[in-house]
């Protein structure tokens, strides 16, 4: 399993490329912008993109999807149903733009080579936010950040819901690499110790 990260778009959203080296298969997670740069990495690595996976529907995580869909028509595009139709200007309504858009939810799994991608529904930043668990890695979108958590003041946001979602992540057994939607990566153990939001969530 190999994970590459590109900071894309005006606010430097983390776009992750998850690769199974043996199967030469890949998933693109949160292509927020700069489709050309993302496609260059795919081409350089010689991998077949099976999935485009969205942790939530905000435009800074989805802007490159239509272009990637044209370039990679074989890739299945997944988002949680609650974030598919957008909400005002804050969300990017993929449902009208991408024919055959697929929906995943809590407990769903996707196979990528020898890897299994597990879906955890972690609302709070948006109604349809998910965390993708692969091996010892958590792709958290804008739910859990290093030292912080996603904002809850946008349409569909809820502080109570993000607290429940953070508790769910904090209670996962063992340690994980935390790959958030913005800023630096971390580990779940470090966040359990020092992230004030996660600590608050774990106390309830």
UniProtKB/TrEMBL annotation:
InterPro entries: MBL_Glyoxalase_II, Metallo-B-lactamas, RibonucZ/Hydroxyglut_hydro. The keyword Hydrolase applies. SUPFAM superfamilies: Metallo-hydrolase/oxidoreductase. The keyword Ubl conjugation does not apply. It comes from the Bacteria. Residues 12-182 form the Metallo-beta-lactamase domain. Keywords: Hydrolase, Metal-binding, Zinc. Gene3D superfamilies: Ribonuclease Z/Hydroxyacylglutathione hydrolase-like. Its cofactor is Zn(2+). GO terms for molecular function: hydrolase activity; metal ion binding. PANTHER family: HYDROXYACYLGLUTATHIONE HYDROLASE GLOC. This is MBL fold metallo-hydrolase. It comes from Flintibacter faecis.
């Amino acid at each position: 399993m190999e994970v590459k990260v590109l900071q894309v778009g005006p606010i430097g959203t983390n776009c992750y490329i998850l690769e199974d080296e043996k199967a030469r298969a890949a998933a693109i997670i949160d292509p927020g912008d700069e489709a050309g740069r993302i496609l260059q990495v795919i081409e350089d690595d010689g991998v077949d993109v099976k999935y485009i996976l969205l942790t939530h529907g905000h435009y800074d995580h989805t802007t490159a999807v239509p272009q990637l869909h044209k370039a990679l028509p074989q890739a299945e595009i997944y988002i949680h149903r609650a974030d598919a139709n957008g909400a005002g200007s804050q969300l990017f309504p993929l449902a009208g733009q991408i024919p055959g858009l697929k929906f995943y939810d809590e407990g769903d799994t996707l196979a990528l080579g020898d890897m299994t991608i597990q879906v955890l529904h972690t609302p709070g930043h948006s109604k349809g936010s998910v965390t993708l668990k692969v091996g010892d890695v958590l792709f958290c979108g804008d739910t859990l950040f290093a030292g912080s958590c996603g904002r809850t003041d946008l349409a569909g946001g809820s502080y109570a819901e993000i607290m429940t979602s953070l508790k769910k992540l904090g209670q996962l057994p063992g340690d994980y690499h935390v790959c958030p939607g913005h800023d630096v990566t971390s580990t779940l153990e470090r966040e359990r110790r020092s992230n004030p939001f996660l600590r608050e969530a774990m106390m309830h």
